[in-house]
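User: Okay, second chain of the day. Same drill as before: sequence in, C-alpha cells out.
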Amino acid sequence: MLDFLNQRRSTPLALLTEPGPQNDELSMILQLASRVPDHRRVVPWRFVVFLGAAKQQAAKLIGQRFLELNPKSDKSKADLESHKFSKSPVVIALVSSPDSTHKTPVWEQNLTVGAVGQNLLLASNAAGFAGVWLTCWYAYDQNIRQQFQVKGFEQIAGFFHLGTASEQPIERPRPNMEQIVSYWKPGLT
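Assistant: Same drill. C-alpha cells below.
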C-alpha cells in the first residue's frame, strides 16, 4: 500500500484512452470513493456520471456555451473545449452538496468531498485505470451547472476523467517536506 501511494500520480488528459471502467468496475470505484471520513454521516456529495452519447451531448453543450461566452472566438476553440470534456472514456462530476442546516460545519463537509475526490482517483488506480481531477471554467458557469442539474447551493468539486494511460505519465516535482512540516513545541509564541 505504501508503494502504491508513493507512486500515485494523475495522468494528463491527453494520455487517457479506452478502456475506461464500466458497469461493475465503475460501481465499485464509486463505492470505494465514498468510504471517507464523514463526520456525523452527512454524505455531502453526489456523483454525475457521463458515458457514451450522454458524454458527447454534454461536451456539445460545453462547446456551445463557450461560443456564447466568447462570440468572437472561432469554432475550433469551442471544438477543443468539447473535445477536452469528451476525450476520456468516463467523466464523473463530483458535486459538493453540503447541508447548511446540519450541525456539522460546511467546512468539514467540504473536506469530506475532497477526500471523496482523492479516493476516487486512488480507487481508479487500484482497479487498473488512470485518471485526472480537473476543475474547468464550466464547473463555475451557471448555465452549464443548470444543464448538469447542479442545484444553486451545490458546487462542482471537479470533473474526474478516467480511462487507460496510453503511456506512463512523467513524474513531477513533489513538495519539499522540510518546508511544509513543523513540530509544535510548548511555550513558543
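The chain has a mean pLDDT of 96.

User: Thanks, on to the next one.
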